[in-house]
Amino acid sequence: MIPTSTSRSVRARLIVAAALTIIALLVYAATVSSDRAGFASSEVQFADASQGGALIVPASCPSNPHYAGECSGGGGGGGSNNPPAAPSSNACIIALSPSTIVSGQSAFMGWSSTYAIFGIPFVVSGTITPTPGAVADAGVTTVNPTQTTTYSGTFTPSGSVQGIPQSWLTPVNCSAALTVLTSAPGAGACAQVNFCNGSALYQQQTNCTDVLVQQCPYGCSNGACQGAAAPTAFIRAVPSLVRAGEQSTISWSSSNAASCNVTSVPAVGGTPWSGLSGSQDTPIGYQTTFTLSCLGLNGSTINRSAVVDILPVFCEVGAPDCDIQPGQ
Fold it and tell me: What are the tens digits of pLDDT across the range 52-79?
């Protein structure tokens, strides 16, 4: 069928109408996108985008609940432009050990500080007065004032993170007092007690002075020298399977041991061998067991063994080079 002029006119009008509809939809979508892109919350001054591309913004005032003073003009809340209190995790501490000394003595001072907002950590620097002055976020030093002194610390965060205003970065403060006595107190003012300082054992006297008792070669813990750890030992044979007459290398080592020796059954290679560690090459004629015995620094003993086996030899019975004769 040949289309008439009327049908062609109707089809043209439908195509034009469809095109106009598509253009209108595109214009509307662009307008909405533009409006959204320009929006910024009057509450926290930011807008974010979801994975699908839609903008996510905090609810506008006067919805409830809200932080006090967070709504600004135009939002319906009638409040100020001050931001809400920052959800933060920040603190500092100053510790003194001991907290009481006699004039002329010294004490250890340690400090530590942390600062984070919304889980985001900030670099912290501080000042402790009257001494040591400017400090890092954590550290240890010694102080020896001549009179009772309170040490005050102020730690301030620094840095810039998008969405977190500088007004939220407020200092944190902490303090600790060190009591200084002009003279040693009388007997009974302090309890007599042992304590560790590194690997050294000290005793605090009743006059609050500290006396070195001894150096602890194996470490100091909970006011007492520690004993030596239990010994350990290891021995191996390489190879552990040989033909009769071939050599095997016997190696051994130990830790926390005072002495060690290696014996063998049957006796081979000039055993016993001595030493906390060592290695010996020895010919093996029969299955041989090597035993490492060590005496530990703590007085205990430990034994370890390694076995070298002989590789079987197969031959045709009756052959000239076979030691096995018929009937055996």
Answer: 444 344 544 444 444 334 444 444 444 4
Q: Are strands 123-129 and 149-158 parallel, antiparallel or unpaired?
A: antiparallel
Domain tally, the chain: 3
Instruction: Assess whether 168 and 94 both reside in one domain.
Output: yes
Q: Where in the sequence is the domain holding 250, given as residue range(s)?
A: 232-310
Q: Which of 168, 45, 173 is nearest to 118 (CA)?
A: 168
Burial of 173 (0-12, 13-18, 19+ CB in 10 A): exposed
pTM: 0.39
134 with 162, same domain: the answer is: yes
Q: What is the pLDDT of residues 135-167, one digit of tens each?
A: 998 889 999 998 899 999 999 888 887 767 777
Residue 121, burial from CB neighbour count under 10 angstroms (0-12, 13-18, 19+) = middle
Question: How far apart, in Å, do the first and last CA atoms of the chain sit?
Answer: 114
Angle at 304 between CA 302 and CA 306, to 5 degrees: 170
Judgement on whether residues 204 and 251 belong to the same structural domain of the protein:
no
Please give the order of strands across the beta sheet that includes 301-310.
Answer: 241-242, 301-310, 288-296, 257-265, 273-274
The number of CA neighbours under 13 Å toward the Cβ of 313 is 13
